[in-house]
Amino acid sequence: MTSLPTFSSSFLGRCETVGTLLGSNAGVMSLDVNTEETLILGASNDFASRVWSLQDHRLRHTLTGHSGKVLAAKFLGDSNKVVSGSHDRTLKIWDLVSRACIKTIFAGSSCNDLVTSDGFGSNIISGHFDKRIRFWDTRSESSANEISLQGRVTSLDLSPDRNYLLSCSRDDTLKIIDLRMNQVTGTFCTGGFHVGCDWSRAVFSPDGEYVTVGGGDGTVFIWDIKKNKVERQLKEHNHSVVACSWHPGGSMILSCDKQKKVILWSDF
């Protein structure tokens, strides 16, 4: 069984475990927290998604039905609905009240990541192994639109104002897409940056002015969006960095590599 620790950061610069989320039987591929910050959602390689309570760290829901690894899951609109994306080439929408799948969407390719682009639970954007980003209206059965990239899509992230979408792909580039025009407005790449795996996660900073991603050599890259230049390269990992996350205040970054080493960066 895979356990998922939760941490708090002390003023002495140390991270202390405040709880462990149990229940997953394989690697946890993505995490999401509901808007009320009471529940945490995890997508797992054991073909399931799970919901835990943040207050007591208890497992509340186990969502099974995919026939492949679940690579991404997000709360959809409110805390009672979840959307998950899987290697089985489907997206599934779940009702947590009835604990049942209420809709299955055949996406045509393995889904490596997804985001929900509005607060009402009607719009989903998914990134796929076939190098496409697909846009879905949950009230329809087919994709409303799609954008083709030059590499397998490994991650998606929304800007704080939800007007821009950040993608990471295996052609070793990050791209920013203006969702109002469905056009790529920025491409970020640099010498030495290589995407290390099919689930490398890139993210916006909380103020929307920077993008961050980990490289295959263990370097964490921070780009200034307006200048389109690398602002910082953080070097401490010895293995491929698969995920980064900003502190909500923008003062710290957490990075995790393939060998389960997690680093908290500040004053960078």
TrEMBL record:
Cite the GO molecular-function annotations of the record. protein-membrane adaptor activity
Q: Which CDD domains match?
A: WD40
Origin: domain of life: Eukaryota
Which BP terms from GO are recorded? autophagosome assembly
WD repeat intervals: 21-62, 63-104, 153-187, 204-233, 234-268
Q: Is Cell membrane included in the keywords of this UniProt record?
A: no
Keywords, in A-Z order = Repeat, WD repeat
Coiled coil spans: none
Instruction: List, alphabetically, the GO terms of the cellular component aspect.
Output: Atg12-Atg5-Atg16 complex; autophagosome membrane; phagophore assembly site membrane
PANTHER family this protein is in? AUTOPHAGY PROTEIN 16-LIKE, AUTOPHAGY-RELATED 16, ISOFORM F
- Protein name, as recorded: Autophagy-related protein 16-like
Q: Which organism is it from?
A: Lingula anatina (Brachiopod)
